[in-house]
Automatic annotation (TrEMBL), chains A, B:
It comes from the Eukaryota. It holds the Pfam family Sulfate_transp. Gene3D superfamilies: STAS domain. GO terms for cellular component: membrane. This is STAS domain-containing protein. The lineage of its organism: Eukaryota, Viridiplantae, Streptophyta, Embryophyta, Tracheophyta. Residues 507-630 form the STAS domain. GO terms for molecular function: secondary active sulfate transmembrane transporter activity. It is found in: Membrane. It comes from Clitoria ternatea. Belongs to the SLC26A/SulP transporter (TC 2.A.53) family. InterPro entries: S04_transporter_CS, SLC26A/SulP_dom, SLC26A/SulP_fam, STAS_dom, STAS_dom_sf.
């Protein structure tokens, strides 16, 4: 082990290796594999007969074939309980969210019937409960509403919603098929917290319409427009509606609080929306409140989903809106579905393949758009109920689907008298749970930049629109990545006492400075975006060091050691920068020394002849060795003997 | 120094420090300073009296006050020679480029009069020769031409060109003032090589019009349109024009080749364009070729620049085009000017402040737009001539400016008979020098991705348009940065024999594997964009290691050591990933060990309580120490004694 002294002869040093050249095709193949197949999904297909491969392929796309053979009666019991629980949540929420999307309420039920069945076959999560989501519904309403008025042209609006769902599904499935799932990763957790909070706020604001019993309301979703709309018509407020709404919100919040405290009674909060609907309907039916300003759902058509393949709109002015809406809602829905699936998979310690999930969610939306459903995904609240209710497999989705089917066939007339204000109360109570202010505080404490991402997404959604918020969130997140590359940190290293390690002197104030030697660490790849900055910054380090030496009158600076451990890669701009920097350093009479460049960097430095310029002897494996050699030179330095040494520090 | 043996007791280990908490404002200030003031421009203002500060400030914005006092007669002699040389190049080039931009030829002379004077006062480069550029002229023609036809509405077109120049200057100066110069860095060298090559190709193609003597020509700039335009009117080709053009191109290329070989005779190629113009004009004058299909410049107005402040267009439909054109041409011109200034500064070993240069170039364009000039910057070819001619300071620009002034006052009638085909020949010969195919080959050899950036910029410009090429180049460059963060490399480390260093086993095939311990290195910050990928990739490393152990039957895996040296930063998504990963590792009966997290990472791990979860004892300063301790545990491992150890590897 390396216990050489400072002033050792420059002999038995381990050299930094230049990796052997690889054929271009091979390294391209490797990069493509790491980019698109990091999880190596084809591993189990290797060395298998064709029939086995077919079975494995079928199991890949339809995980139901994987788990169905092991399914037990015990599982069925748990899944039935979970399925009925989520159905009782899905029915009122489905109707509410469809109203939020300005769609016929029955669509909420349709969407809880077909998509869960498809997901049960194709999805790999055991806990995801499929259904419509508030944010997606709101986005549909606001994006489609800009093109078509849902009151004047309800049919076209409906068909556009199906078309948007179709494109959302197409996008989701293609992302999965082409292994581009990592695009979803660019929506950071912080962005999603802010975005969801903003969307929830906006959705709650929209509910003021039904809660205050207003007839006219703004079509804008931002805070300013809604507040103006609410406070310009104070004389229109209906106190009956408001009282009813507040009571139900209170009831729902209390049950949620109770279930949170007592996880055993998860069903209390899960059943509360259905109970509210029943109570509200009864109340209206008995008091004839619908004639006193309390709006009700009205007639709901009995029967299962009608087909809607022929309703998809592919004609010029509308298809553009549908595609745009589909892309944005599709990405948002996907991000939520994948995140929810992953978190529950983590709790139960099984693996979720993101790309496979995307194919499942995408297929379910494509088929949904053919059967009168609109955008579905795996909402967090419903999946959490499913998980708490003890679901074992995706069979709970099938049970929910059957329960919804029975409702569609027989129970729709019961919703005739359901007051809209109850639906609003259900939405508000669900949305309040999405405003994760504690999450935002946590972000602030740990990472200020993440907080900035979160808060700008929130402000963008609340004061601008959902799309603006989304764009801001992604832009700020990307800015962070770009800033990281454009402005990498550089550190001054010192020797940790009683150790061969050299570390950042800011973090380790006891680290020792080595006279005559400046040791720097660069913390990022050297790319075009930071090459100029790094040149300036490193030059400043040298200037500051020389100023310091001038003040203290110690050994003059002779060596600049750059620890390249963290420099993962370099491009041609980076190499030009190093070449220029070497010239500058030479001119100042200093010797540049590199430590531990990685394989990529060594390969490129070698190809670009920079290694020859610098001299391979000035590249060391560890800072310790480099310092050892430099010290040896410094101590045995005699001008006449050293003529063969680099011109750099000879002409000091 | 650390020469502990493998099986040492876990006692005298140097701990990884958690940096003391800093007030938010202080770290924000530090980040802002590093982002916007990495070169510390205010350093010299510190501790100075107010009067001195004023002088320094004046010198900052007008470097002429800095160097003028030291100006000598010797310098003047050199500068006069250089100035006359570049003037003889500037006059024909200026006229040619103005024609290229569909502007009155006289504008080319105007633009070589006022802007160089301003730059001489404000610029910090000693070698930059100011003037118009071909690419900028072409861009103006194509972008403004889309809004206004220069033949039908020449006045409006001209005024829009001034307005675009004004906005270009405004953008350039603001980038400099607000210290946003690093935006230009995002145009990588590779992108510029491809972009310039593509633009040069497109400009050459445009010259086919005058060289073939065609009357009608496409307004598109892409290869396909131009080729179609040329080959659909073969019957219109004029051989007189073509012969003349080819002769002059040949003459110009031969002189360039000669001057390149014999740098002493730099003036041969510098004078060649002027000689061509004189020869061509004489030829036309004597043979009356203008009556036989050879187009000539015609009347040029005598006199200096008329003011054009009142011509700037700020009305609705046009100002948008002007702003867009200004932004794009401004950025391109800036990138060229800064790059040229920097490279010559490097040759002569003086420093150029990018932000200061931007203010200078921006101011010169703003004032240019007030005095009938259009977009100017520091073109490479002219600056190279200036440098070769031995210029000492920016006075050579003043000399050029005076020469152009004299031309404007007395010599413009001489250009009446100058054939357009000579101007085309001048443009073609200048453009051929911009197609840097050797540069592209160099990129291919060293960095395939840079080559991709370059070639896609080229293809985008040649087959699409200049803007498309620019957007593609920036997008592909950014994609590289994002891919770097999204798909960081992870390496397996091994012990280098006879050393305490642990390095990538791919680069050092002789590095030794330590039984029972998996050592990984992560080569990028852990951010939202790569957290999922890293979790999957590291899990795959563990799976592969366990498979390997199963096959060979060696010591089972007990420790996973992650070297965090290169992990410069982490965000909340990254921390969640680590938390999840730790749970997974625990569940598999492994112990997670971190090595050398940097100060940022330690701070955040501490705040997020991850340190408490992991146990501070599982974080080491060096891989050597971590391996030493793990080995100690492995060797002295007895289940009963170790009850107080982490649950992780207890329940193996």
């Amino acid at each position: 082990m390396g216990n050489r002294d400072y002033a050792c002869p420059p002999s038995d040093v381990q050299r930094v290796a230049i990796p052997p050249p690889q054929p271009f095709i091979k390294s391209l193949k490797y990069s493509l594999k790491e980019t698109f197949f990091p999880d190596d999904p084809l591993k189990k297909f290797k060395n298998q007969p064709a029939s086995k491969r077919l079975v494995l392929g079928l199991q890949y796309f339809f995980p139901i074939f994987e788990w169905a053979p092991q399914y037990t009666l015990q599982f069925l019991k748990s899944d039935i309980i979970a399925g009925i629980t989520i159905a009782s949540l899905a029915i009122p929420q489905g109707i509410s969210y469809a109203k939020l999307g300005n769609l016929p309420p029955i669509l909420g039920l349709y969407s809880s019937f077909i998509p869960p069945l498809i997901y049960a076959m194709m999805g790999s999560s055991r806990d995801l409960a499929v259904g419509t989501v508030a944010v997606g519904s709101l986005l549909m309403a606001s994006m489609l509403g800009r093109e078509v008025n849902y009151l004047q042209n309800p049919n076209l609006y409906l068909h556009l919603a199906f078309t948007a769902t179709f494109f959302a599904g197409l996008l989701q499935a293609s992302l999965g098929l082409f292994r581009l799932g990592f695009i979803v990763d660019f929506l950071s957790h912080a962005a999603i917290v802010g975005f969801m909070g903003g969307a929830a706020t906006v959705v709650c604001l929209q509910q003021l319409k039904s809660i205050l019993g207003l007839q006219h309301f703004t079509h804008q979703a931002d805070l300013v427009s809604v507040m103006r709309s609410v406070f310009t018509q104070t004389h229109q407020w209906r106190w009956e509606s408001a009282v009813l709404g507040c009571c139900f919100i209170f009831f729902l919040l209390v049950t949620r609080y109770f279930s949170k405290r007592q996880p055993k009674f998860f069903w209390v909060s899960a059943m509360a929306p259905l109970v509210s609907v029943i109570l509200g309907s009864l109340l209206v039916y008995l008091t004839h409140a619908e004639k006193h300003g309390v709006q009700v759902i009205g007639e709901l058509k009995k029967g299962l989903n009608p087909p809607s393949v022929m309703d998809l709109v592919f004609v010029a002015p509308y298809v553009g809106t549908a595609i745009k809406t589909g892309l944005i809602t599709g990405i948002i829905a996907l991000a939520e579905g994948i995140a929810v699936g992953r978190s529950f998979a983590m709790f139960k310690n099984y693996h979720i393949d993101g790309n496979k999930e995307m194919i499942a969610i995408g297929t379910m939306n494509i088929f949904g758009s053919f059967t009168s459903c609109y955008l579905t995904t795996g909402p967090f609240s419903r999946s959490a109920v499913n998980y708490n209710a003890g679901c074992k497999t995706a069979v709970s989705n099938i049970v929910m689907s059957i329960a919804v089917m029975l409702t569609l066939l027989f129970l729709t007339p019961l919703f005739h008298y359901t007051p809209l204000v109850v639906l609003s109360a259900i939405i508000v109570s669900a949305m309040l749970g999405l405003i994760d202010y504690q999450g935002a505080i946590h972000l602030w404490k740990i990472d200020k930049f993440d907080f900035l991402v979160c808060i700008s997404a929130y402000v963008g959604v609340v004061f601008g629109s959902v799309e603006i918020g989304l764009v801001i969130a992604v832009a700020v997140s990307l800015l962070r990545l770009l800033l990281f590359v454009a402005r990498p940190r550089t550190y001054l290293l010192g020797n940790i006492p009683n150790s061969s390690a050299y570390r950042n002197v800011e973090q380790y104030p006891n680290a020792n400075h080595i006279p005559g030697i400046l040791i720097l660490e660069i913390d990022a790849p050297i790319y075009f975006a930071n090459a100029s900055y790094l040149r300036e910054r490193i030059t400043r380090w040298i200037d500051e060091e020389e100023d310091r030496i001038k003040d203290t009158g110690k050994t003059s600076l002779q060596y600049v050691i750059m620890d390249m451990t963290a420099v993962a890669n370099i491009d041609t701009s980076g190499i030009s920068m190093l070449e220029e920097f070497k010239k500058t350093v030479d001119r100042r009479g200093l010797q540049l020394v590199l430590v531990n460049p990685g394989s990529e960097v060594m390969k490129k430095l070698n190809k670009s002849k920079f290694l020859d310029e610098l001299g391979h002897k000035w590249i060391y494996l560890t800072v310790e060795e480099a310092v050892g050699e430099c010290n040896f030179m410094l101590q045995t330095y005699k001008p006449n003997q050293m003529k063969d040494e680099s011109q750099g520090w000879n002409n000091v």
